[in-house]
Amino acid sequence: MTSGGWLSRIAEADAGLPDADRAAQVLAAGDPGTERVVAALTATRAELALVPPSRLPAALAARLAAGFDAADAAAEPGRTGSPSATERRAGRPSVGRAGSRRRRRTLVLTAAAAALVAAVLTGPPSRPPTDLATATGRVLAAGTRDVGELSDPARLDSCLVRSGAPAAAGPLLAGRPIRLGGVDGLLLVISTGTKGRVRAVVPTTDCGRVLADVTVGG
Amino acid sequence: MPLLDARSDRQLIAAHRAGERRAFDELVRRYGDRLWSVALRVVQDPEDAADVVQEALIAAYTRVESYRGESEVSTWLHRIVVNKCIDRIRHDRSRATRRRHVLLPTPRDPADQATTRLAVVDALTHLPVEQRLAVVLVDVEGYPVAEAARILECPPGTVKSRCARGRLRLAALLGHLREDA
Fold first, then answer.
1. Which of B37, B158, B95 shows the shortest CA–CA distance to A53?
2. Across A168-177, B47-56, B73-82, B161-170, least confident range
3. Taking Cα atoms as reference points, which of A121, A96, A120, A93 lies closest to residue A106?
4. Based on the domain organization, do B75 and B137 belong to the same domain?
5. Binning pLDDT at 50, 70 and 90, where does residue B7 land?
6. Among residues 9-48 of chain A, which lie with CB inside 8 Å of chain B?
7. Which of A132, A148, B44, B67 could form a disulfide with A128 if both were Cys (CB 3.0 to 4.6 A apart)?
8. Per the CB < 8 Å rule, is A15 touching B62?
9. Where does the pLDDT of residue A4 fall: very low under 50, low under 70, confident under 90, or very high at 90 and above?
10. B63 and B131, same domain (yes or no)
């Protein structure tokens, strides 16, 4: 089998092909080459899962509102001007599907503003900064375990609990020192027990608090 | 009027058909971020993504009769956006190629150089559109394979296969894997 065919077979098994049983057989081969490719695919999925979300820009929301109004104006029999022009001539709000553009804009932009306020109050929903995404992918692919005494599962759990995070639900897969937001910590990539899904948690070096704790992949 | 509309997506579609302007606004509020995110990750360029989302949502707004209730409203909206993305990429390939050369002057094919490591968002542009769509929906946006299959109108196995090929390519582009390993 060619190198490309071998890689494709592992990638397809990693994706659950051709079916769960046969995929499991391929992945259970246990040879270092297969494990390295699976680790690379897991790291890739982890990076993809950590691409930060993006909100509908307010400018686009306004464009949409204008577009909906234009569509309404075009659909309304006998109507030739823009809704706002029509309303100005009529001197009152129009009815039915050709309502006020200003009202629509207010609604849409209010929603955008509410979302912005929510983001400021609560932060992004669940995704960490991209530098953590990159670090997680790299440390997982390399299999680095530069975590000192936290390679001991009991000490790992003790550190996590002291820092206010849940204990590990699976083995430590990789880790290394990292600096997040100007604070020194330890990036710990921990198995969740679900294929392709890992937990990336960063306690401070003194286990005093958690800088990041996310589940990625899968 | 309460700030949050408790009506189901299908009820909102029915209200929109009946002429209630606010109903479609609520659908945009519910799904606008996700539709925008998919478009941005697939077509990459924010201006193109804005055009795609605008064209898609106005098409949905004006041709709501094309929603026949066979799928969820969110699936229908995503499908329209995805099809607009495909149209944009296929009909604008020469422009996309020029833009990629501006963003990534060297090397022409980063997978040829094991030392090259691209940002994951840039690496997505190197995938064929079918693989990119599958990877964006499943791995970036986190949709279940079955839902991605409904959006892409293909069997789940096809989505898995496209994801597998896309991830393999990305693993090389991101420096996690040498393709000649």
1. B37
2. A168-177
3. A93
4. no
5. very high
6. 11-12, 14-18, 33, 36-37, 39-41, 43-45, 47-48
7. A132
8. no
9. low
10. no
Q: Are both B96 and B113 inside the same structural domain?
A: no
Query: What pLDDT digit, counting tens, does each position of B13-49 carry?
Result: 999 999 887 899 999 999 999 999 999 999 989 999 9
Residue B21, token pair as written in the block: 């302007």
Residues A46 and B2: their CA atoms lie apart, in Å, by 39
Tokens of B166: 């896309």
Among B32, B121, B164, select the one facing A17 at the smallest CB separation.
B164
For residues A165 and A203, the answer to whether their CB atoms sit within 8 Å is yes
Among candidate residues B61, B76, B103, the one where a domain is terminated: B103
Domain span at residue B147 reads 105-181
**Which residue did the predictor score with more confidence, A193 or B130?**
B130
ipTM at complex level? 0.83
| Least CB–CB distance from A63: residue in B54, B142, B175 | B54
φ, ψ of residue B24 to 5 degrees: the values are -70, -30
pLDDT in tens, B64-90: 999 999 999 999 999 999 999 999 998
Residue of A nearest to B62 (CA): A71
Segment A162-183 mean pLDDT: 86
| Chain-chain contact of B120 with A47 (C-beta, under 8 angstroms) | yes
Burial of A204 (0-12, 13-18, 19+ CB in 10 A): middle
Structure letter (DSSP) for residue B138:
I
Under a CB-based contact definition with an 8 Å cutoff, are residues A186 and A147 in contact? yes
Structure tokens at A215: 């589940």
Report residue A217 as tokens: 């992949």
As a whole number, mean pLDDT of residues A8-27 equals 90
Q: Which two tokens stand for residue A18?
A: 């051709």
Residues B79 and B142 in one domain: no
Tally of domains in chain B: 2
Q: Which two tokens stand for residue B103?
A: 């963003």
